[in-house]
Design brief:
alpha/beta, 52% helix, globular
Length: 389
């Protein structure tokens, strides 16, 4: 009988029941996202920022004129709650409400969802602002309960309002006091925008969004690792994942081009990503092997600007904040921001969003720019090398 030492026992596997599942990825081609983003470009973006968007200043001016002709108060109401250049306005990001609606496949169905959602959800979306205390959703619920039971001006309301700039407190207080009235005003103004401006854009946008969404779905099917797909579709944004993240929504957009819009709300990170119009343009015209491709032309066009080259040189030394870049190059933050949007869209810089934990954002240089430049040129110049005598 073998009486040798007993073999070591393998410890049982330990399973952490709190381990989160991988977040779900949803790709949508809903016009509702461009409906909201068209308003952002028109109402929220300052005059200095409009030139950052491919849609152009002329479109914005014509859209404002059509909306004002239909109802002169609509843009004023939307600006008050969605954010314009008035210190008294809120800065609501209602794009996240689209994913909360049972069916928001069209702008009109999204508006139906806004009418039917709980009033507390609508109030939270309007009052959600940058820089609020971490416990503000609980304080908001307490303030709403306080209103229902004892009326306005209670301690919970006063604590909530103290988080807002003094100029914006009357508007925030109006949301608390008359959320149903505010909802009716906002939804009516959104319907004016749809009828006067956005409805005429739908035939042009629908095929572009559907095509881009299908391309993204195909990339997702072909990608073995979720994080690789997410990193690519974030288009140069490195977002620090928050606890409780359960879903990504990727929504193609024409109106956000060339920027990326994103917002985190209630466990859902919504990314509105620019439609790649060069694909359609390339498909619509015959290709000439003697000419460079659209991607190569766009890449070198980004490098054909002295300010953008100076930004890249600064970032080659270290990561930098927007303010630091502006100071180093003696330019305004608005000018630097304009170039950063373009550089990020071209895949040359990365925006690191660490506001969830570190309360900061900064930029870094993508490490493969020099390699890409050489690869583009070498591939183009040597494309016929195998056929030479």
């Amino acid at each position: 009988m073998d009486t040798g030492p007993e073999p070591p026992r393998t410890p049982p596997p330990a399973v952490d029941l709190r381990r989160p599942r991988a977040p779900e990825i949803t790709i949508v081609d809903s016009l509702a996202y461009d409906f909201v983003l068209s308003l952002h470009v028109t109402v929220v973006a300052s005059h200095a920022e409009i030139h950052e968007f491919d849609i152009g200043r002329e479109w914005v001016q014509q859209a404002r004129a059509r909306c004002d002709a239909a109802d002169p108060s609509a843009l004023d109401i939307l600006g008050l709650y969605l954010g314009d250049d008035r210190p008294s306005s809120l800065r609501a990001t209602v794009v996240s409400l689209i994913g909360q609606c049972p069916d928001a496949s069209t702008p009109l169905r999204f508006l139906d969802g806004l009418r039917e959602m709980p009033a507390s959800d609508f109030a939270e979306a309007l009052l959600d602002q940058e820089g609020l205390s971490a416990d503000w959703p609980g304080v908001l619920r307490a303030a709403l309960d306080e209103h229902a039971s004892t009326g306005p001006n209670g301690p919970a309301e006063q604590r909530l309002l103290a988080d807002y700039p003094a100029a914006a407190r009357p508007v925030a207080q109006r949301v608390l006091n008359d959320v149903e009235v505010v909802r009716a005003e906002v939804v009516a103004a959104l319907r004016v925008w749809y009828d006067a401006v956005f409805a005429s854009e739908e035939p042009r946008l629908t095929p572009l969004l559907k095509r881009e969404a299908e391309i993204m779905r195909q990339r997702l099917r072909e990608t073995s690792q979720q994080h690789a797909f997410i990193e690519r579709e974030m288009r140069g944004v490195q977002w620090q994942r928050q606890p409780g993240l359960r879903r990504y929504i990727f929504a193609p957009s024409v109106f956000c081009r060339p920027a990326v819009f994103y917002h985190y709300w209630r466990g859902v990170l919504t990314f509105c990503v620019p439609v790649d119009l060069s694909v359609q343009q390339t498909q619509s015209r015959p290709t000439n092997p003697e000419l460079p491709g659209e991607e190569m032309v766009n890449f070198y066009a980004m490098l054909g600007d002295e300010t953008r080259l100076a930004i890249l040189r600064q970032l080659s030394h270290r990561q930098m904040y927007l303010t630091e870049l502006a100071e180093a190059l003696k330019l305004t933050k608005a000018t630097i921001q304009h170039h950063m949007v373009r550089l990020r869209a071209a895949g040359m810089v990365t925006l690191h969003d660490r506001r969830a934990h570190e309360h900061k954002t900064y930029y870094t240089l993508r490490p493969d720019i020099s390699r890409r430049a050489r690869l583009y040129l070498d591939t183009f110049l040597r494309s016929d090398a195998d056929n030479l005598p």
